[in-house]
Amino acid sequence: MDSVRILLSQCLRAAWRRRWMGVIVAWLVCGIGWVAVYTIPNQFESGARLFVDADAVLTPLLRGLAADSAPTTQLEILQRTLLSRPNLEKLVSKTDLDLTLSSPSDRERLLSRLGTDIHVNPQTRNLFTINYRDKSPKLAHDVVQTLLTIFVESATGGSRADMENARRFLERQIQSYEQQLRGAEKRRADFRARYIEILPADNNPNVPALEGARSAADALEGRLQDALISRDALKQEVENTPPMLVVESGGPNGLLGGDAGRNRVQEAQDQLRMMLLKDTDQHPDVIAQRKLIESLKNAPKNLPTAAEVAAKDAAGREAAANTVKRSVPNAVYDQLKVKLIESDTNVISLQRQRDDAVRYRDRLEKIQREQPGLIAEYQNMDRDYTVLRRNYEELLGRLQSANIAQAADTQADKVKLQIIDPPEIPRLPVAPNRMFLVTGVLLGGLMTGAGLTVLFGQLDRSFSTVDELRNLGLPVLGGISVLGLVPFRQRLVAVLRFGAAVAVLVGIYGGLVVHILRSAALI
Prior knowledge:
Among the domains are: 117 residues, no CATH class; 154 residues, 2-Layer Sandwich (Alpha-Beta Plaits), CATH 3.30.70.1130. The protein contains 16 helices and six strands. 12% of the residues are buried.
């Protein structure tokens, strides 16, 4: 610990002996540094904040209806390509920076410097800033303002130009497909008119005409067999039904009691036959009529007394003498005959339809055997026509979507651009930071002066004390003591002189600081 203290005291004594050299060096360094700081030109910065977003209402409404131009992606591309070479060349021409250029190499250096000095920094997804520094405040403002103009033009005009190119391309493709579609329609119509009998119908293109003819012939054959069976049943019913009915009419009391009962049963049976012509055996009316007939047949007969029997016999003999038998037409028979005529007519019609269908089927089978490749050729032709028509309709739909998207871009401002902070001509410089530089020069000068004094003190070969000589290992006989001490006044004057030199240097630094603060309008 004592050795360190001794070494430190030696260094301080050596530095104090060379203090004026350190003061001179500090003054030189500070003077040169401060002059250099003030020769650095001021840098003025101009900036702007821009809010860019797709329309939050129009974009969802047009999704699926208009062509999706992906405005968010477009804006990201615009932000990243704003400092591209074409945009920088446009910037140079609009701000008259090219007037100061004398050679192509100067132009290249200017473009490179602009690409480095211009900063486009995104703050959020839709908010970003544009900053540029230059020694001319007006030029800094003009550069930022021109960049904003270029960005707005690119955001609005670029998408519209792309949409116009896409629309013209779609129109050319639609015209080409329209010509091909018309040719395909004509070939298809001519082929169909030539072989219309064997080709499938337009309303059912999946079923060939021959299969349809076969199905129609089979269906008519089945209907004809059903009609024949129904006609034979009606004919059998007509044969079993008498055309005339014998009716017995008595005296003034009319028919006898037993005959009246039989007539009611007969009428019920006739009604049953009429029902069976229209309904089945399981119909509720038919079942009820059958029960009525059974009840009439099984109805009990009242047993008369002897006097009633005698009176009845006398009345019967008298009625028999007055009974008249006559024949009347059977209404059931007439109705059955009408049904039979209708059934015969239906059978004849079905036979004619069946024969026509069979002849048509046979003709199609003959054509199919003679020309088996017609269906395949028509299917290929129809497939080509279907593909052309589908592509044509899809192109028409996309053209309408492009028109709607173009209208949205040109009339509704689909992309929203809003300049939040417009660029202004800066009045105060932002660089260099003279306060920091002046302070750094002062500290550097002081440290340089102190360091040089310590360095030269270490390079000094003289010895200040007897102990330094003894450390060399040489015998020391003795030392000469100080004959007299330096007066206190002289030491005080030396210290005051050194402190005044340093204080003046610090005072100059303070004056520079005050000047800088006043220039920045801070005081």
